[in-house]
Structure formats: structure tokens, C-alpha cells
Write a structure and sequence with these properties.
The chain has eleven helices and no strands. The protein is mainly alpha-helical and 329 residues long. The longest helix has 32 residues, at 297-328.
Length: 329
């Protein structure tokens, strides 16, 4: 008799999690009309977050901040327990994975209820830039963490010390959990195209965070899909806002794919050249009509990302040096 191979539990859970993320996003969309009656202040510019109550109360703030903190601490605790017990990577799920999936699903439901009851998120009290910066720094952290595996520039590694990479890998879960949970609670679950796309992206990041110490957590195609998700999100939101900045996001994040991210996929040289030439041809086509003076848009996001990788590595190096000196003191 031929031996049958049972499906991998981590892959099954991933697909079920993606389906659940779509269902959660659909529920936000279906219930969104209930929030149309809430009166909001007029938009006051680029630094203004529109979706917050004009007159917050103690209870609206307590609901947002209280539930956020419970969610955050719970997620951190599960990561800590899994690490402290020296959990090994597996093709099945550990009990900490099931707990994390349950915790995140519970708080997604609680945030849905909280939005329709008291509305406000963390945006009432913190800058809109903090939410955007948290996810941007998460993606920059990934660039640093993956330097040894795929390089930084066309497969070539930057000469970071191994202790920096080890630190980034060991503690990335805590920062990523903060970035995703904080951004998740920053926004109320309102129905705009940007919010729906953003919440779906957050659900996927929470799913990835819940699958720590499983093989799918480090699958190069799945992790790249999440990195490239910011390209789709940023480009689509810019198109919907009609601010004519979509090429900056499309070609900026696309440039990072060509220069760095696709080199971790073990693609043939022919495929990589094909992707690179398609990127160049698309940029030439768009900017021949947009105007060559705007071509600098392409380098803005990659320049910020690569400079930020160096800065982040420097901060880690300084922190590790200080920690070593304190231990010797």
C-alpha cells in the first residue's frame, strides 16, 4: 500500500486564517452603515485623523486603551512563554499558537463591538504618524533580519555583525506584536476602502504573528506576500484618495522588491532579469506621461528604507555594546 501524506497543520491553519481574515473584513463592511450617523469634525489636513469623536469621554478612551493593553500584554505573554520553554519549529501547531489565534480572534471581535458601541480608537490621543511609522519600522526590521538570507542589494549582504542579526531575530516577535496590535487598535472599524484593505492586512499580520515557531511562519513566499502587501495597500489607498501619489508607492515599494526582496526566493537569473526589466519598462511608461521631473518619486521610499536599516542596525549595536559594558561593570 502507498503511504499517504497527511496535510501539514500549519499550512491548513494558514489558509483557514486567511479565510477568517476575509470573513472578518466582510463583517466590517456589512455593518459599516450603522456608523454613518456618527458626527465627525471636518478634515483639517494631512496630519489630521478624521475618524475620531469630536467629544471623547472617559469611557470611550477606557474602552480603546483598556482593550488595547489587554490585547498587547496577552500577545507578548504568549510569545514570552513560547520562547522561555525553548519551543522548536514544527509543521504542526503548538499550544501557544492555538492560544495566540484565540486571543487575536477574541480581540478582533471585541474591537468590532467596541467600534459600534463607543467608536473611538487610539487615534483620539496619538498622532496619525505613529501608526504609519510602526508598520514602516516593522518592514525595515524585516530587511535587517533577512540580510543574511537574501542580502540587501541584488543578493549582496551588508556587513552587519552577527550579534545584531541574532538580536533582531530573537526579539522581532515582541516589536512586531506591538506594531500590529497598536495599529489595529489605532483605527475604529469603519467602512472606507482604505480601512477595509488596511484591516485585512492587519489580520494577516496578526495571523503571521500567531504562527510563531511553525514552519509556515518562515516560508519565504508567505513572508514576501506580507511584505509586498504594503505595496498593494499604499498604492490602492493613494489611488482612492485621488492625490496622484500612487506611483511613489507602487514604484517605491516595487523598487525594494526588485533590489532586495525577490532575491530571497531562489528565482533563476532569467526570472529576476525579467522582473527587473518589467519594473523599468513600467516606470518608463508611467513617467513618460507623468513627467521625468517626477522620477525622483521612485527613490524616495527605497532611500528611506535603506537608510533606516542602517540606523536601526546602529541602534542595536549601541544597545548591545552598552549591555555588554553593564554586564562587565
Amino acid at each position: 500500500m502507498m503511504k499517504t501524506t497527511s496535510p501539514r497543520k500549519d499550512i491548513q491553519t494558514l489558509w483557514l486564517g486567511i479565510l477568517a481574515s476575509l470573513l472578518f473584513t466582510g463583517a466590517i463592511w456589512l455593518a459599516g452603515a450603522r456608523l454613518d450617523a456618527i458626527r465627525l469634525l471636518p478634515d483639517q489636513g494631512v496630519s489630521w485623523y478624521y475618524w475620531k469623536l469630536p467629544e471623547p469621554t472617559f469611557w470611550t478612551r477606557l474602552s480603546a486603551w483598556g482593550l488595547y493593553l489587554l490585547h498587547q500584554v496577552s500577545f507578548w505573554y504568549l510569545i514570552y512563554k513560547a520562547q522561555s520553554q525553548k519551543t522548536k519549529y514544527s509543521m504542526t501547531l503548538h499550544r501557544w499558537n492555538w492560544a495566540a489565534l484565540g486571543v487575536n480572534a477574541l480581540f478582533i471581535l471585541l474591537h468590532f463591538v467596541q467600534t459600534h458601541w463607543l467608536y473611538d480608537g487610539l487615534a483620539q490621543d496619538v498622532s496619525i504618524w505613529s501608526s504609519q511609522a510602526s508598520v514602516a519600522l516593522l518592514l525595515i526590521w524585516v530587511l535587517l533580519m533577512e540580510n543574511d538570507r537574501r542580502g540587501m542589494f541584488f543578493g549582496k549582504r551588508l556587513p552587519f555583525k552577527q550579534e545584531i542579526i541574532r538580536f533582531a531575530r530573537k526579539y522581532h516577535g515582541y516589536f512586531f506584536a506591538w506594531a500590529t496590535v497598536y495599529t489595529f487598535w489605532y483605527h475604529p472599524m469603519v467602512v472606507t476602502s482604505g480601512h477595509l484593505i488596511g484591516f485585512f492586512y492587519m489580520f494577516l499580520l496578526l495571523l503571521q504573528g500567531s504562527l510563531f515557531f511553525t514552519r509556515i511562519h518562515t516560508n519565504r513566499w508567505w513572508t514576501l506576500f506580507q511584505e509586498v502587501g504594503v505595496l498593494a495597500h499604499g498604492t490602492l489607498v493613494a489611488i482612492m484618495q485621488g492625490n496622484n501619489l500612487w506611483p511613489m508607492f507602487a514604484f517605491g515599494f516595487g523598487g525594494v522588491v526588485v533590489v532586495t526582496q525577490m532575491h530571497g526566493l531562489k528565482l533563476s537569473r532569467r526570472v529576476r532579469w525579467g522582473v527587473g526589466l518589467a519594473y523599468i519598462a513600467s516606470a518608463v511608461w508611467v513617467y513618460s506621461g507623468r513627467g521625468w521631473i517626477a522620477l525622483n518619486e521612485i527613490v524616495r521610499i527605497p532611500l528611506i528604507d535603506y537608510l533606516a536599516v542602517g540606523i536601526l542596525a546602529g541602534i542595536f549595536a549601541l544597545g548591545l555594546r552598552l549591555a555588554s559594558r553593564l554586564q562587565r561593570a
